[in-house]
Amino acid sequence: MPGGVDDPAAPSGGNTYDRRVCRDLSRLGWQVHEHAVAGDWPHPRAAARAELTRILRESADGTLVLLDGLVACTVPDIIVPEADRLRLAVLVHLPLGDETGLAPAVAAALDAKERRTLRAVAVVVATSAWAAGRLVDHHGLDPGRVHVAAPGADIAPLSTGTSSGADSAPRLLCVAAVIPRKGQHELVKALATVADLPWSCVCVGGLDRDPVYATRLRELIEEHGLGNRVHLAGPRTGPELNASYAAADLLVLASHAETYGMVVTEALARGVPVLATAVGGLPEAVGHAPDGSVPGVLVPPKDTAALASALRHWLREPGERHRSKAAARRRRTALAGWETTSRSLAKVLEQLQQDSRRTT
């Protein structure tokens, strides 16, 4: 079973998901042959298109192929002709047209390409129930062909955060690529309204995907006099990222669109509460503790005033900080692991394989 991923070297939720399921499917007994197709997806050049074409053409008839949607959905002219010969499954991390900042014509073109691809392949896998429903409704897909395999979480040691003393400044953490869809500009504006309160904020995430936006964000931070309180740390992985979570008191995420939001469960896996926008699959990721309590706060997207109000309440009220932290620690005990993700995906692929055998 070949698997196509977009860029394994780049730290992102989608790439983490792809790497984990490739590894865990092998542990479950699947023979996985991974193919990383280098290119500027979702706008591939000729070399990337040629490489993907070669991989698919060299796959034997009936081969089960799992493709990352960032790759497959951009090139229906390559995917659709192979849909009858191969058993194709596409894993959609984010609908292409949902990326923020796209020109309307570009978004519409990507959306049309995605629709052609997803209507042609045998199976579509989404990373949340919300995302599955959106794909069905938006692209007119057969609900029976769209399945959910939500990301898992690795339970980690509890965050130490800061002390509860009067002089302690809560540490806020935002983990997201610095791009318009992640809403860091709204977060900075909200933080500026609570500058009278003690806090610090570290923004972890790649700065090179949209350099113009990153520059504007730096200027906004300086404009509000927050240069010594908001730190753009760039991408972090492994022990360095773990240390960021371990030091955090609150994860803040102001996204405009998310199909799930793996950073939310990464925070909850350490008992860190969450302040996030109620958009897409984020409410699913935040979830509830076993006792029904919510491990944080959800606010409307693109609403700086609501975000600022929630921040002020959390920062000013020790009772709210204690409540959200306790709920996050209870939610931590109920998080599903990556084995659940891989078993859900394996079940979908097994059914696809059986269907293939019955039709040959």
Summarize the structure.
The chain has 360 residues and is an alpha/beta fold. It has helices spanning 13-27, 46-57, 69-72, 76-79, 104-120, 129-139, 184-193, 211-223, 238-246, 262-268, 282-286, 304-316, 318-332, 338-358, and strands spanning 2-5, 33-36, 64-68, 87-92, 123-126, 146-148, 171-175, 200-204, 230-234, 250-253, 274-277, 296-299.
Walk me through the topology:
Elements: E1 2-5, H1 13-27, E2 33-36, H2 46-57, E3 64-68, H3 69-72, H4 76-79, E4 87-92, H5 104-120, E5 123-126, H6 129-139, E6 146-148, E7 171-175, H7 184-193, E8 200-204, H8 211-223, E9 230-234, H9 238-246, E10 250-253, H10 262-268, E11 274-277, H11 282-286, E12 296-299, H12 304-316, H13 318-332, H14 338-358
Parallel strand pairs: 1-2, 1-3, 3-4, 4-5, 5-6, 7-8, 7-10, 8-9, 10-11, 11-12
Helix pairs in contact: 1-14, 7-8, 7-12
- Total tally of structural domains: 2
Average pLDDT: 91
Identify the overall geometry. globular
Can you tell me the CATH topology of the largest domain?
Answer: Rossmann fold
Question: What is the number of E strands?
Answer: 12
Summarize the amount of helix as a percent range.
Answer: 40-55%
Name of the CATH superfamily of the largest domain:
Glycogen Phosphorylase B
N- to C-terminal distance: 18 Å
| Elements, N to C (H/E) | EHEHEHHEHEHEEHEHEHEHEHEHHH
What is the CATH domain class of the largest domain?
Alpha Beta
Query: Which percent range describes the beta-strand content?
Result: 5-15%
CATH architecture title of the largest domain: 3-Layer(aba) Sandwich
What order do the strands of the largest sheet run in, or round the barrel if closed?
2-1-3-4-5-6
pLDDT under 50 segments (min length 5)?
1-9
